[in-house]
Amino acid sequence: GNKASKKVVFQVNPALTVRADPLRLTAGGVFNGVPLFPLKISGGTGKTTVTYLKDGVPVTTQAVGGLYFASEGGITGKVPENTAELDGIRVRVEDEGGGGVVVPLTWIINPPMTAHVTDAVLTAGARIPNGLVPVQISGGTVPVTLKLYDKKGKAALLPDAVIFNGINGSLGGNINGSEALTKQYVVKAFDQGGGVLEVPFTLKIVKPL
């Protein structure tokens, strides 16, 4: 005649929500080491699984337009020249509590970076004029980060008191001393869309008149 009772506790978690930011990429760009992850996932119950779909068919771990779609949600590979093969790809995210959301992906593929080069000719003992940009980058996907190397691919050592701006590519500071110098450098541009561009230029320092 004994009766037993057990208390059952139900936990209801917030609904699973998924947002996919537009993918802004550069034609020919490459993502290998660090994958793209366009999804922002919140709420739901437990772990989530991600499945990329093309025309309703899973393409996870397959190549579409040169890009690979991982089950963890990351995207790697080489960016195609246009969105033709990528249009129509959707993402299905499911959680352990039965929640599921399908969202479309928006692709924006920008043209590759190009460069206009003006070799820098400066006078020893003078101050570098404002706005001197030996390598001007256009195209690609902003923001663009610039790094300066010597022709052997090592981090460049500029003449004393000369400064390279990695945001806009300008040279600044002063040309100390009075010796003439001609040296080659390489500007390497990295953009947000996987694009990389290497551009050489020459820095020439002439003696004052």
Structural summary, described in words:
0% of the residues lie in helices and 48% in strands. The protein has no helices and 20 strands. A four-stranded antiparallel sheet has the order 3-9-8-7, with no helix packed on it. It is elongated. It starts with 16 loop residues before the first strand and ends with a strand. The mean pLDDT is 92.
Summarize the model shown.
With 209 residues, this protein is mainly β. The chain has strands spanning 17-20, 23-26, 30-36, 39-42, 48-54, 57-58, 63-64, 67-69, 75-78, 89-95, 100-104, 107-110, 114-117, 120-123, 135-138, 144-150, 162-164, 171-173, 181-191, 196-206.
Features:
209 residues, mainly beta, four-stranded antiparallel β-sheet, 20 strands, 48% strand, elongated
- Structural class, by secondary structure, is mainly beta
The overall average pLDDT, rounded, is 92
**Annotation, overall tally of beta strands:** 20
Please describe the biggest sheet, giving its number of strands, its sense, and whether it closes into a barrel: 4 strands, antiparallel
As laid out across the biggest beta sheet, the strand order is: 3-9-8-7
Q: What portion of residues is helical? A: under 10%
Using only C-alpha atoms, the radius of gyration works out to 26 Å
Count of helical regions: 0
Report how far the terminal alpha carbons are from each other: 114 Å
% residues in beta strands:
over 45%
Low-pLDDT stretches = none
Order of helices and strands: EEEEEEEEEEEEEEEEEEEE
